[in-house]
Design goal:
154 residues, globular, mainly beta
């Protein structure tokens, strides 16, 4: 397995806690939403992100609602990083050629069964940042050497 294949496997595990956001087929705006970054403490739920103020980046606003977490206090702004009230889910909405319109929508699901991110504190002194733990195997990345490493845990 080469570096690219191993990195793709790591990336797949990193995304295991969250689905790729689905844009509603009826959206007027043709921009995108990044795959959310989800912290391990996040609960399983469906998230709905709906445009409430039309426009391009830095203008368009979106309400963010979790099926469990409820309506979030802050609106997401197209072109800026958004983080939920509890700080456990973050993403960026980016405008496209066509500006966002009221009711344009994205949905994504967070699940509790992904492996998620592993705390790397104990590995920092040896230069590794650990990305994921899968069946007693730690998969990491050494930024200094731009290399992926796999450490079998006995």
């Amino acid at each position: 397995m080469n570096y690219g294949e191993l990195k793709a496997k790591i990336d797949t595990k990193l995304l295991a806690q969250c689905t790729v956001p689905a844009a509603d087929a009826g959206n007027t705006g043709d921009g995108t939403m990044s795959t959310p970054v989800v912290k391990d403490a996040a609960v399983a739920e469906l998230w709905t992100v709906v445009c409430s103020v039309e426009g391009a980046d830095d203008v368009a606003k979106f309400t963010v609602t979790g099926a469990v977490s409820g309506l979030q206090n802050n609106l997401a702004t197209s072109g800026s990083v958004y983080t939920t009230d509890d700080g456990l889910v973050s993403f960026t909405i980016t405008g496209g050629v066509e500006p966002w319109d009221v009711a344009d929508e994205f949905t994504f699901t967070v699940s509790e069964d992904g492996d998620g991110l592993t705390d790397a504190t104990e590995f920092r002194e040896i230069g590794f940042v650990i990305h994921s733990k899968v069946d007693d195997v730690e998969i990491g990345y050494d930024a200094g050497k731009d290399q992926v490493c796999v450490i079998q845990i006995d």
